[in-house]
Every structure is written in structure tokens, then in C-alpha cells.
Amino acid sequence: MKRKKIIVVLIILLFIPLYAKKKGSAELPERYKRWVGEEVVYIITPKEKDIFLQLETDRERDVFIEAFWKQRDPTSGTPRNEFKEEHYRRLNYANKFFGRGTPRPGWKTDQGRIYIILGPPKNIEKYENVMNVHPTQIWFYFGDPQYGLPTAFNVIFFKKEGTGEYILYSPSDHGPQSLIANYMGNARNIEEAYQELLTLEPNLAKQTLSLIPGERVLPGLISLASDILLNKVFVYPQKKIEDQYAEAILKYKDIVEVEYTANYISSNSLVKIIKDDSGFFLVNYSVEPKKLSVDLYGDRYNAHFELNGRITDLNGNTIFQYVKEIPLSFNQDQIKDIESKSFALQDMFPLVPGNYRFNLLIKNTVSKEFTSLEKDITIPQDISVPQLSSLILGYRIEKSTATSREFVPFKIGKNQILCQSMRVFMPKESMYIYFQVFGLSQEVKSRGQLRFAFFKEGEEFFSKTKKISEYKTDVNFIEEYSLGNFPPGFYRIKVSVLDKDGEELLFETENFEITHRTDLPRPLVISKVMPFSRIEEYVYTSGIQLLNKGNFKDAAGFLEKAYHKNPKQLKFALGFSQILFMNGEYQRVKEILKPFLDNQDENGEVLYFMGKSCHSLRQFEDALSYYKSYLSHFGTNLEILNLMGTCFYQLGNKKEALQIWQRSLEINPDQEDIKKLVKSLQDENK
Predict the structure, then answer these.
(1) N or C end of the chain: which has fewer CB within 10 A?
(2) Predicted confidence (pLDDT) per residue in 502-560, tens digit
(3) Cα separation, 398 vs 421, whole angstroms
(4) Which residues in 483-542 belong to E strands, given as ranges?
(5) How far apart are CA 348 and CA 410, in angstroms?
(6) Do 94 and 106 meet the contact criterion of CB atoms below 8 Å apart?
(7) Dihedral through CA 529, CA 532, CA 533, CA 535, nearest 10?
């Protein structure tokens, strides 16, 4: 069946902070120096350049350059990169035509720089044979207001003192007097110079006071807008690119496979902590990739996402790690729907109290593309202390009609809050404000208030106060506000908890925007859902997290509970066995893991703990049996080899012990303890 790759592009933003050691460009091979310092010098962003200079190998640099052009490709998914082709055409043109008569290559000249940045002008006016006027050219361009440029503008070049290369003209730095040959008037009297140039070349004179057609500037005054315009022209290429991909390449170059590295897709992300009714704090997250690539097979459009999540503590120790798969399949109508809006991947997981760093790597295994998010998160240690959660601003509430309970991202009770990280709303919409409050005294609950204040451009626009006792809950709060009377603009909402006297006890704020648009598309939400009947998954996950934090006592309670809930689940049995082994309950480990010995090809950890438990019980023959089985199924393992040597030694078979330990040293000679054992046995044999 014929397969075809389809690319759906969705525009969104991303920012990822990164800290890395710098390397100097002096260490670069010549071809990379030329690339960063000449070929792309006018279009590379400061962040891209900084990260490129930190790369250590030519392979990494080649991958970066590939990604650099992919990020600028207007038609991703096709063999051609029109942006790259046009850029090198401009570069070659500049070197061919603008370096003539100058000691510098054309790309270094002012005209070369403008040509490479903006391309060929729509029109050129040349004043090169005007009596008493230095050679001057006026290049006319249409601008892009989206990036701060006026709809139309001029760029003026002239030859200073009438010779040399053309240089950029600035109304404030040069003025009309700089264009007049042998000007004898007062160089500071711009009006006098303007009048003289007006007599020499009226059309040129009228364009020297401002680079922006239609801007009224009286002779003698300075057009600051023209200076601002030139600065905006210089940064125009950088404004057009989202350079977060560069940080992702540096951060993940040693983690993701090579075929993914150059294919970073930026995305928007939202991470919120919600305490579920079951007692777990759940990390809810939503990721909206900028682009969805799918594979067409038959009449279905397929993608497959792999989510790699990692939670680390403040010291960088891994507390929790997971991999999840999200296969997607769309029909033609669904893929058209996604083309017109976007899609969001949503998921959640429980997390025990503490301060953490959350890293998520999302790979589309169909297109070999990836995106990522990083977020510092805190799970409160003590909810008896008064505290207010961060605010979630949603554009819609969906009420569940299901009779069975499910764990769904951004769901509180039977209400799922549909929200986006951009927090953009339409005037016709309602905004739903969700938050949680913990640790309030009974007096505040019965006599306190909640205050909702909206600020527009720093000024309070609207506020409302409501008694806490009016709500049906004292933890989960949802408030709806119609935005019909809110004019488009940027806002900030502040939610405050007030005591009976109106004194502020707690507050949280969040920014949002109300757009002019009346048809703002909302994403297709794809969520990972877990039925409540599988709550032991969260119990087990919490136990593993506590175990990795070193809280063995609390971890034991969670892991035992998960095991007794479903004793036939291998990971639950292994989790509980790990705690039992640490506590010296070796016989119980054997009893729990024995039912899982039937499929030894898949149960390396079972063989490992069974062997070590027998070893600890001094059942050395049985331990050897499990160790040998482990090695035959899963290959060489130094720890297992050394333990086998110990078993042979304890059984009095010193010859076998010596051979095993010698084999271990052949694999890793830097084992001082094993060296001592081998030497001791060799000395005995002398």
C-alpha cells in the first residue's frame, strides 16, 4: 500500500531556560568559522550563535546546521528548502556586486548586509550624476508590521565624500549636508542644508529627513523613527525565528537518537498541580506541539508519540522516571480539523511532597521529531498550613456523565477544565478560574471571603468579592466570569483570600489576554485516561518515589498496599520485594517472587532478587542456579559474576571461584577488592 508523509503546521511558542559552558569560536574548524561568522552572520540569533559555539564535535555542529535551516524552511516535509536557497542566492549576489571597488567582500558592505537581510528592493532610485550631490541610492521596501516594521520604508545609501563604497544613511547621524559635495554651510544647521539640497535635487531632499514615507518631519528636526527603523531592520531575521530548538539540541544531543536531533519542534506547555479527591497530588501537563507529522497508510493518518518523563530533586537525583506511548490515528476529516487549529497532548502522574525539576521529552517515532518541556514544581509538605494553589484559567468546563470514576488530566471531581498555556480568550467567551485552598481555619472558612480583581494595563478594571461559605467546598473553587464587557487587551487576575476583617491572607495572580479575534480555534485534546479501579498504579508510583528519596518507611507502606491490591502484577511484586530485601526479609522475597519464575526470559529482576535472597540465606546452591540463569538470559553482569564467585568460595570450590573472579577482572581490571581475593587464592595454590 502506498505511503505518503503529510505535514500539518501549527504556530505556537516555547521558551526553555538553559545553562551551559561556553566554548570560544577560536576552537572551530575553518568551515564552521566561515558558516557562523560569514554565511549566516546576519540571520543567526544570539542564542543560536552562543549554543553553536558550545558544541564540541563536528557531528554536533553538522546536526545543528541542519536544524538551523529546518527551522527556517517555509515548506517543511518537502525536499527543497526555499529559505536556504534564497539566502545563499542573496549572499552570492552581495559578494558579486557590492564588493566591487572596495577592499571588503560584498557581504560586509552596508548594501550587502541590507540585501542579505531584506532581499532585492521593490524599487531603486539612483542619484549618481547630480551636480554637487554625492552618489546616492534609495532602496524602497514593503515592511512587515508583524515584526515591527512600517508597511513601507526607504533605505538610503551614499558615498561619503563622494568616494569609496556606499554606506547607510541616517537622518540623525548624517543629515542632508552629508549628501552635498563641498558643502560650505553650517554643518549643524540642518534646515539650511536641506534648502540647499532642495535646490540641487528636490526629490532626493524630500526623502532625507525620514526613511518612512509620509512621516512629517520639519527641516531641522530629527526623525527618531528612522533610527529605530534601522535597528529593527537589523534584527528582523532574528525576530522571525523561534530559537528554542537550539537549547533543546544542546540539552538532548546525548539523549535522543541522532536521527531526531535536528528535528526539534517547538511547543507550548502548561504544568499545574492538583490535589485529587483520592489524596494524591497530581502533576497535570498539556503540551501543544507546533507541528504534527503523520504517516498516511491506506485511509488513515498515523502518528506515534513516546513520552519520556523524569523527575529529579534539587541535587539532580532521579526520583521518578517513566515512558508512555500514545498512538494516534486520524481519518481525513479529523486531520483537516487539526490543520485548522492544533492539538494538545495531556497527561498526569502522582508526585510525593518535595521540590523538583520536571523534564519531559516527547518523540514522534513516525517523523523522528521531538519536543520537550522543563518546569520546576513543588508539592506541599503540609497542607494544614494556609496556602493557595496557582490559578488555572480555562475556556470551557466539560462535565463528566460517566458513572465510573476516571483519572483525567485537569479534572476536578466531575469537571474537566479545558485550558491552554497561552491563556488567550475571546470577548464572547467565559473564563473559568480554578484553584485550591488548604489549611484555612474554621473561622476563615465561615467568615472569610474570596476577592477576584482584574487589572488592565496595571489599573484595576473590575473586582468582585464572595463569601467562602457560599461555596459548596472549602478546597476546590471554580468561578466563571463572562468576558463580554472586557475590551481586547492584556490583563492580570488576582485572587485573594481575606479574613473576616477584609485583611489579605493569601493571593495568587495570573496573566491573560483577550484577543480581537472572534474565531479563536481551540486544540484537539488527546488525554491519557486511567480508570479509578487501577488506583494501585498511583500507590505503587508514590512508593517508588519515596524509595528513591530515601524514605524507606513510608515507601514500604505504599509498595505493600499496591502489591496486596494486585499481587499478580510483576512490578508491584518487585517493588515490595525490594523493600523486603532491604529490611532483611529474604524468605518473604522468595515467596512473593516464586510465582513469576515461569517466564525467565522477561524477568531479570526476579532472578536477581531470588539469587541475592538465597545468597543472603546462605542457600548458595540455589543462589548459583538463579545467577547462572540470569547470565544465560541477560548476558554478562559483573555483580552477578562476583556473587557467583562468592558462592563457589563458600561452597569450598575455590577453583571455580578463582576462575569466575579472574573472568570478572578481564572485563573490568579496576576492581581492587576482587584483585585481593584473586591474589589470595593464587597464593594458596603456590
Answers:
(1) C
(2) 999 999 999 999 999 888 889 999 988 888 889 999 999 999 999 999 999 999 999 99
(3) 18
(4) 489-498, 504-514, 524-527, 530-531
(5) 8
(6) yes
(7) 100
Render pLDDT for 365-380 as a digit per residue (tens, 0 to 9).
999 999 999 999 999 9
| Distance from C-alpha of 547 to C-alpha of 559, rounded to nearest angstrom | 9
Residue 406: in which H helix or E strand, if any? Answer: strand 406-407
Sign (positive or negative) of CA dihedral 316, 383, 351, 558:
positive
Is the backbone of residue 553 left (phi > 0), alpha (psi -120 to 50) or beta?
alpha
Are 23 and 54 in contact by the 8 Å Cβ rule? The answer is yes
d(Cα 594, Cα 432) in Å, to the nearest integer? 53
Residue 296 has phi, psi (to 5 degrees) of -85, 120
- In the structure grid, which three cell numbers stand for residue 432, read together? 473559568
Q: What is the DSSP letter of 36?
A: I
Angstrom distance (rounded) from CA 114 to CA 136: 15
Grid cell at residue 492 = 492580570
Query: What element of type H or E holds 449?
Result: strand 449-456
The label of the residue with cell 559635495 reads 181
| Mean pLDDT of all residues in 35-45 | 97
Q: Cα separations (Å) of 644 from 508, 621, 633, 653?
A: 59, 10, 16, 11
Q: Are strands 524-527 and 343-350 parallel, antiparallel or unpaired?
A: parallel
The DSSP letter of residue 294 is E
Nearest-Å Rg of the Cα atoms of the chain is 34
User: Given pLDDT bands bounded at 50, 70 and 90, which one contains residue 21?
Assistant: very low
**DSSP bridge pairs for 374:** 359
Smallest Cα–Cα separation from 544: which of 572, 505, 508? 572
C-alpha cell at 263: 528535528
DSSP 348: E
Neighbours of 337 (CB within 10 A): 14
Question: In the beta sheet, which residues pair with residue 496?
Answer: 451, 507
* SS3 assignment for 407-431: ECCCEECCEEEEECCCCEECCCCEE
pLDDT at 241: 92
Phi, psi of 598 (to 5 degrees): -65, -40
Q: Spell 62-90 as b/e; 16+ CB within 10 A means b.
A: ebbbebbebbbeeebeeeebebeeebeeb
For residues 379 and 358, is the Cβ–Cβ distance under 8 A?
A: no
- 525620514: which residue's cell? 210
Q: Which residues contact 496 (CB under 8 A, 6 or more apart)?
A: 450, 451, 453, 504, 505, 506, 507
End-to-end CA distance of the chain: 72
**What's the pLDDT tens digit per position in 437-487?**
999 999 999 999 999 999 998 899 999 999 999 998 889 999 999 999 999
Cβ proximity of 435 and 417 under 8 Å? no
Cα dist from 347 to 107, 275, 376, 522, 525, whole Å: 49, 15, 17, 18, 10
Between vectors from CA 420 to CA 414 and to CA 425, what angle results, nearest 5°? 100
User: CA 392, CA 388: separation in Å to the nearest integer?
Assistant: 12
The dihedral through the CA atoms of 207, 208, 212, 217 has a sign that is negative
| Whole-angstrom distance, CA of residue 261 vs CA of residue 254 | 9
Cβ atoms of residues 153 and 143 within 8 Å = yes
What pTM did the predictor assign? 0.80
Per residue in 52-68, pLDDT (tens digit) is 999 999 999 999 999 99
Evaluate whether 390 touches 417 at the Cβ level (below 8 Å).
Answer: no
Cell numbers for 466: 464572595
